[in-house]
């Protein structure tokens, strides 16, 4: 009985020590692990190779692991991946999450793209449901690696198929005949150009000479224009200045004449209304007097001076003339 009691006591003590060792190990793990933060990443692509416990690295440095993987109930197109990373990890605005695959089939999540001085990714105080639908901050995804290639494989295959169909249309029998005809025409044109090579060279030489002559002519025209400008500046400009002075003098004389006419306008009006009628009357009187004098002169010519004082003497009667 005493031996059996000793064994039970030793077993109990050993069991207690093992439990204490396990608790101490957990406590050390918590102390060494420090605090951790959780983030969600919504991938709109296949997450093959990811599993709970898959490593999470930041620029190649291990910082955490995948906590959970599930379809997002609000939109099954997205896969929600819950990450748990160390508290000191610089998950700032601009940080993105990328699935990196490997040939072994195991995938990891890499975080990168943090900008120095940017604020950390966190849920806003107002309307947190929009940016944090599951209650934790969201890291935007970034397509990359084998997963991105596999996700874009259907579109790539479709484009390759379309390109193949278009190449088949281009290389049809009809188009091949057309291409062959174009090549034949090109060959004939090349042969014709080769035959006319000397003529083309001569034409190019003449063209070069013509261009040189045109350049010389342009230079001469420029010199002539410069000479013409000098003549205009030296000879014509003084004449133009003299003409401008003459025009200014004539304008001044015209202004003076206008002022004189304006000053003489009242006298001209009186002259036209009073003097001119009197002159007309005087002219009429002069005409009447001239007529009377003409009549007197005629009488003097016919009858002498006596015609002015009496009647004309009657001729004597002669009976013999009867």
Automatic annotation (TrEMBL):
<feature type="transmembrane region" description="Helical">
    <location>
        <begin position="6"/>
        <end position="29"/>
    </location>
</feature>
<keyword id="KW-1133">Transmembrane helix</keyword>
<feature type="domain" description="Mce/MlaD">
    <location>
        <begin position="37"/>
        <end position="111"/>
    </location>
</feature>
<dbReference type="Pfam" id="PF02470">
    <property type="entry name" value="MlaD"/>
</dbReference>
<keyword id="KW-0812">Transmembrane</keyword>
<dbReference type="InterPro" id="IPR003399">
    <property type="entry name" value="Mce/MlaD"/>
</dbReference>
<protein>
    <submittedName>
        <fullName>Mammalian cell entry protein</fullName>
    </submittedName>
</protein>
<keyword id="KW-0472">Membrane</keyword>
